[in-house]
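hi got a favour to ask and not much time before my train. below you get a single protein, a line of residues and a line of whole numbers that encode the local backbone shape. could you go over both lines and see whether the tokens make sense for that sequence. a few lines back from you is plenty, here it is:
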Amino acid sequence: MLRPSFKFDRSLLTDLGRWIYESLCEVMAPLAEEPVRPGCVAALELAGNLTNLQPHVHAIVTAGAFSLDGARFYPLPEHSLETLEQVVRVRVLEGMTSAA
């Protein structure tokens, strides 16, 4: 249902990457009492395996977050991926709703 929005409003593709990174930051923020930053390398993909429009992001993400000075690493607890998935879904849907 979201694909036509991405097809006709390409600015949403930039937003998609930002929404995912913001979700990572939100999930990892409680790992420490100091500000933290996750390590992330991401690539936006536009096509599925049938070369149809299927916007999605491939990402390599650290299993935790670093202090802002990089001196400390705070590991992500198990079962955090389910939380991340929910946060991403909500953020993307809210972002798409506000963009409409």
